[in-house]
From TrEMBL, chain B:
This is ABC transporter, ATP-binding protein. The keyword Glycosyltransferase does not apply. GO terms for molecular function: ABC-type transporter activity; ATP binding; ATP hydrolysis activity. PANTHER family: MALTODEXTRIN IMPORT ATP-BINDING PROTEIN MSMX, TREHALOSE IMPORT ATP-BINDING PROTEIN SUGC. Residues 4-234 form the ABC transporter domain.
Length: 331, 365
């Protein structure tokens, strides 16, 4: 349990600037998700907190202690990688016990058994405890490597896309499990992903990264409902926010170049005519692909809509976002 | 362009029965999805349709001709794999023209055809580039180009987007579907991703353990699943199944769950014993005056909507509500279920009980 503070952290790899003056506080007991596309700097932050990399500039503290010069072991962090790393010659049980068997910890065997049993249960691998790690499927191996972090009680958990190689059903089960483990134990968790569903559903705070810069930090709801920029607005929301020329519907505020419309910011049945190009039934909802004054637009409608390709739907913006030429949000 | 009919097709590998006797029809020009978890037999089914595996028994008709025991080369189809195999030493144009040149098509005609395809796929600019320098999306487009260029009777695709990340996959699936709408070729597509199947398919076959669970139009299957398996495989989150012991008579418009009576679509089948009450998350409303009660366990924020997890007397239930609805974790509340949308299942067989609401979909499929 610890707070993690990054102060003006920068990092370059040769000529590539990976991070630029990132300052961020991961509050004690929070679940912080770093969100951004490949190359945004998410993993670099995680590796520097873990001690696998050192910042060029700036400071990182964990639980009030400056980490400069500390090895990964001294930092008391547990890391889960995208590519699982298990001991292939050991069984699942031995892999899970391994972190607890460290001579420094001297965990009693009964305590080890209890912990391993509990974690195996949560991750649905109880029936595989006697198997060799190499006899598992990819999804099972990843659950074991998450389990190996969970059996410890570190100051901070660091996870780098731990669910990206799992299938959809397991991913959605584990999202809820990881979230509830974190909430129940009060652990501090720093989590990297490019999957917006993971960010939305698990995070207490989301850090949006763009090319090595932290552009917004807040709750998922804050970022979704009050994005600071076109970039941040595009990170969350399915279907993606529609970005059109600012004056396509009506006169726009001065200096606005783009209007941003999420599905709930488009009123249907009043306003101006648009043409239905495709109707996509997703089950719980239906997506309408619309053409409005030669711009493509996607919105959501009732799952049993009778609309079809070629129909006309009237639409009107409702409390839209406006952005300037730099992509910044206008008040 | 072709209709494909599968009749009583079965496949055994030694003593393992990979596909149980299966029948379905892919209509001309359809975008047809084979959906199921890994190991369900969907890829084996596709490979039999393509001629990469021969069925142990049964018939496969492409355009009226029985081709079940013919190899792929005699079926005039094109296959797109998950890992797009391009010739690394050739440029984009040569990769696309290769199938035509090897068929002996005159060069001038090949050139015209390749340009036409490149236009459709939006890759005219990169025709002279080596394939090694391309992005994942462009490589995929080139692989598609090579499949399309021959004008085959049908396309077969085995998780062609499986290796791409979420954002890009969504983009490519839109592009693939738009491409299909332009050229209108019969396409059979294997996926384990239910959203991809819903989004792209005109029809879906849902498979499990080598058998067909259900076959039909995506929205119909979503609304009226034939089995608990389908109810839980489609939808994110899937259909809620509240387990209870009860009795339904033919013609019943209500069912008793514990001491609460729930409205249901008029039943056409009687059942007694372990039943499941199926309700989709978006058809649940919270209403404090309702008699069926639960406790809010967790909330997942999704932007437009939120998923609320509730502990109920019959297990955990998920409700999809507008994000603007206030919900308090730990609070006890009542739930209302839209009675028109309910499916009851026999828990023993896992099959849906027929009702006036679902009989059209179930007898058709």
């Amino acid at each position: 349990m610890a707070e993690v503070i990054l102060t003006d952290v920068s990092k370059s790899f040769a000529a590539d600037v990976a991070l630029e003056n990132v300052s961020m506080t991961v509050p004690n007991g929070s679940f912080v998700v770093l969100l951004g596309p490949t190359g945004a700097g998410k993993t670099t932050i995680l590796r520097m907190v873990s001690g696998l990399d050192q910042p060029d500039q700036g400071a990182i503290s964990i639980g009030g202690r400056d980490t400069a010069g500390l090895t990964p072991a001294q930092r008391d962090v547990a890391m889960v990688f995208q590519q699982y790393s298990l001991y292939p010659h050991l069984t699942v049980r031995q892999n899970l016990e391994f972190p607890l068997k460290s001579p420094i910890l001297r965990t009693p065997q009964a305590e080890i058994d209890r912990k391993v049993g509990e974690v195996a249960e949560i991750l649905q691998i109880s029936h595989k405890l006697g198997n060799k790690a190499t006899a598992l499927s990819g999804g099972e191996m990843q659950r074991v490597s998450i389990g190996r972090a969970l059996v410890r009680n570190p100051a901070v958990y660091l996870m780098d896309e731990p669910l990206s190689s799992l299938d959809a059903k397991l991913r959605s089960d584990l999202r809820i499990e990881i979230k509830s483990i974190q909430a129940d134990s009060g652990a501090t968790l720093l989590y990297v992903t490019h999957d917006q569903i993971e960010a939305m559903t698990m995070a207490t705070h989301v850090g949006v990264l763009d090319n090595g810069k932290l552009v917004q930090f807040g709750s998922p709801r804050e970022i979704y409902e009050n994005p600071v920029s076109m970039y941040a607005a595009s990170r969350l929301g399915q279907p993606r926010i529609n970005l059109l020329p600012a004056d396509v519907f009506a006169v726009a505020p001065h200096s606005a170049t783009h209007i941003g419309l999420r599905p709930e910011q488009i009123v249907q049945g009043e306003g101006e005519e648009s043409l239905v190009q495709r109707v996509e039934h997703l089950g719980d909802q239906t997506r309408l692909h619309l053409m409005f004054r030669s711009h493509n637009l996607i919105t959501v409608t009732n799952s049993h809509t009778t609309l079809k390709r070629g129909d006309v739907v009237k639409i009107r913006p409702d409390k839209p976002f406006y952005f300037d030429a730099n992509g910044a949000r206008l008040g | 362009m072709a209709q494909i009919i599968i009749e009583n097709v079965r496949k055994d590998f030694g003593s393992f029965n990979a596909v149980k006797s299966s029948s379905f029809t892919v209509e001309d020009g359809e975008f047809f999805m084979l959906l199921g978890p890994s190991g369900c037999g969907k890829t084996t089914t596709l490979r039999m349709m393509a001629g990469l595996e021969l069925p142990t028994s049964g018939e496969i008709y492409i355009d009226g001709e029985e081709v079940g025991q013919k190899p792929a080369s005699q079926r005039d189809i094109a296959f797109v794999f998950q890992m797009f195999a391009l010739y690394p030493h050739m440029n984009v144009g040569k990769n696309i023209s290769y199938p035509l040149l090897s068929q002996g098509m005159p060069k001038a005609q090949v050139k015209k055809k390749v340009h036409e395809i490149a236009e459709i796929l939006g890759i005219t600019e990169i025709l002279n580039k080596p394939v090694g320098s391309l992005s994942g999306g462009d490589r995929q487009r080139v692989a598609l180009g090579r499949a399309i260029v021959r004008d085959p009777k049908a396309f077969f695709m085995d998780e062609p987007l499986g290796a791409l990340d979420a954002e890009f996959r969504e983009h490519m699936s839109e592009e693939l579907r738009a491409l299909h709408d332009r050229i209108g070729a019969t396409t059979v597509y294997v996926t384990h991703d239910q959203l991809e199947a819903m989004q792209m398919g005109d029809k879906i076959v849902v498979m499990n353990h080598g058998s067909i669970e259900q076959f039909g139009v995506p929205q119909d299957i979503y609304d009226w699943p034939a089995s608990k398996f389908v109810a839980q495989f489609l939808g994110s989150p899937p259909m809620n199944l509240l387990e209870f012991n009860g009795m339904v008579d033919i013609g019943a418009k209500q069912v008793r769950m514990g001491d609460i009576t729930m409205d249901i679509p008029p039943s056409l089948e009687g059942a007694n014993g372990a039943l499941s009450f199926g309700i989709r998350p978006e058809h649940v409303k919270l209403d404090d005056s309702a008699r069926y009660r639960g406790r809010v366990k967790a909330v997942e924020y999704l932007g437009t909507t939120q998923i609320v997890l509730l502990d109920t007397p019959n297990g955990v239930l998920k409700a999809r509500l507008p994000s603007s609805d206030p919900v308090t974790i730990g609070a006890t509340t009542g739930m209302i279920f839209d009675p028109r949308t309910i499916t009851l299942f026999d828990s023993q067989t896992g099959k849906a009980l027929r009702s006036q609401a679902n009989q059209g979909v179930l007898t058709h499929g």
